[in-house]
Design a protein that fits this description.
Elements lengths: L8 H4 L11 H13 L6 E3 L9 E5 L4 E21 L6 E15 L5 E7 H14 L5
Antiparallel strand pairs: 1-2, 2-3, 3-4, 4-5
Length: 136
C-alpha cells in the first residue's frame, strides 16, 4: 500500500529498531511507495513512511529490492557530494563511498552479502543513514 511521506525532522532523526519477520508488510509498503514516487525518488527507508524499523528499498533498475536490517560491512573510495531527499527540501553536502559491501536480509529473512558501487552504493548509503537517524 502506498503510504504518505514523513517530513517530521524530529521523527526522522530517531534511530530505527531491528526489523523482524512480522515487519514484512512494511517492506511491501516501501516498494509500493517507492514505485509511486519513482519519478522523484530512487530509494526509501521505513522511517520515511512513518515506521521506525531497519528496512530500506532501493531501485536498482529492473525492480526495487528490499533490505531488512542492512549493515555496511566494508567501504572504500571516500568522496564528497550533495544529495536531496524526498522527506526534505533542497540538497545538502555529505560524505559517501564509491564501493560498499552490505549484509542484509531479504523478504524471506535469508541473509545476503552484496557489493554495490557508484550511484547504487550512494543510494544505499543514504537510506542506511536514514535508519540511524542521520539527516543529510
Amino acid at each position: 500500500m502506498v503510504k504518505p511521506i514523513m517530513k517530521d525532522i524530529f521523527f526522522l532523526s530517531q534511530k530505527s529498531e531491528p526489523a523482524k519477520q512480522a515487519d514484512k508488510q512494511v517492506g511491501k509498503d516501501l516498494i509500493d511507495t517507492l514505485v509511486a514516487h519513482r519519478h522523484e525518488c530512487v530509494g526509501m527507508a521505513a522511517n520515511m513512511i512513518g515506521v521506525k524499523k531497519n528496512i530500506i528499498a532501493v531501485d536498482i533498475g529492473i525492480m526495487p529490492i528490499v533490505m531488512f536490517n542492512p549493515v555496511i560491512t566494508k567501504k572504500s573510495g571516500k568522496f564528497e557530494t550533495e544529495e536531496g531527499c524526498l522527506s526534505l527540501i533542497g540538497v545538502r553536502p555529505c560524505t559517501r563511498y564509491k564501493e560498499i559491501e552490505v549484509e542484509y536480509q531479504d523478504m524471506n529473512f535469508k541473509k545476503h552479502i552484496q557489493k554495490f558501487n557508484g550511484w547504487t552504493a550512494q543510494i544505499v548509503q543514504h537510506e542506511i543513514d536514514h535508519l540511524q537517524g542521520i539527516i543529510i
